[in-house]
Amino acid sequence: MDNISFSYDKISGDDKSLSLLQESNLINEGKWICAESYEEILALIQNYETETVSKFSCYSADKNFGNIEASVKHHKIRWEDDSVPFNGVPFVIVGSKVFDCMHGRDRKVSFKEEYKMRCNDRKVSDHSYFKSYEMIQDAKKFNCSSQIKIKEVLKFPDFKIIEDSKWKRVTSSKKIQEAISKNEAVGQKIFLIFLPSMSSHTGHFTGNAAGISQPIDARLKEEIFTSSEFITSVDEMRRRLEIIVTREIFKNSICPSKSNKRFFPSKKTIRSYTLEAIRKKRYSNIDQECLIKKVEQWKVENPHRRFYLRPKGISEN
Ligand SMILES: [Zn+2]
User: Fold this and answer.
1) ipTM, 2 dp
2) Would you say the C-alpha torsion 210, 3, 97, 64 has a positive or negative sign?
3) Which of 4, 100, 135, 216 could be disulfide-bonded to 265 (CB atoms 3.0-4.6 Å)?
4) Ligand 1 center to residue 150 CA distance, Å?
5) Between vectors from CA 56 to CA 51 and to CA 59, what angle results, nearest 5°?
6) Is residue 307 scored above 80 in pLDDT?
7) Ligand 1 mean position to 7 CA, how many Å?
C-alpha cells in the first residue's frame, strides 16, 4: 500500500477535473489520502463513488465525527500508524468513521430475524389482525468486505523531530503533553481517508454493470424534495433531474450512462420520493397549524406574556 505523509499527497475536493482513479491508481491498490476539512472528505467520497460506480453507507462513527472537539490529553501521541508512515510530525487520532460497501455484510441480520419471529408469534395467536409483510431476502448484501475508513486527526508540526530515535520521540511527546496541559498546543486538524481499490469489491458487479443497482444520488433526492412543490408529474420531474445531471453535476466531466440509476433513477424511484416529499411537507404544515392554535391558547391563558410566531412562508414586512 502506498502510504502518505502529512506534507504531500493532498487532493483538493474542489478540483472537478481530477480523476481519482487515474491520479491515485485506485484500480488495484487502496490508498490513504489527506484532506484539510470534512467537506473535502465528503466531496472525495462523492467523486470516488461516482467514478467507481459504488455506494457506501456508514457502519460506525464516533460521536460528532467531522467536528470533534476532543481533549487531546486523553489520546495517545503517535508518530506513525497504518495510515501515515513516520515523517517526524507527531499526531493524535481523535475519532474514526467506517463506511461499508452497500453490498457488504448484513449488519441488521439479528433485527430482521427478531422481526420474523415476532411476526410468527403474532400469526399463531388467536384473533390477530396484525398484517404481516413478507420479508424477502435482502438482495443487496453479498458480504463484500470493501470499506472506506476515515480518521479525524490533530497534528503537531511545531513538535516535529528531524531524526527518529526512541529518546527523541519520548522527549518530544513529553513536551507536547506539557504544552497541552498549559493550553499552549492546540494542534492542527486534518482528515485521513482510506479509499479502497476496485479489486477489493467481491461478490457483486463493479464498474458500469453495477449502475443498475445504485441508489439515487443525494443531490437528486434533495432536488425532488424542493421541486415537488411545483412539479408533480413524474415525467416532468425526470426531465428536470436529467437536466441537472447533464448540465450541472457533470458540466465539466463525463456523464455516466443512462443505465446508472444513481444519476438516472427509474420512474418508480422518482414517484416514491415525490410522494414522500409531499407527505413530509403536509405533516410540517399540520405541525405549524397546531403550533398557531397552541400560541392562541397560550395568549388566552397568559395575557401578561408576549408571544410572537412567524409562520413559514410569511415575511416579516
Ligand atoms: Zn463492494
Assistant:
1) 0.99
2) negative
3) 216
4) 17
5) 160
6) no
7) 31
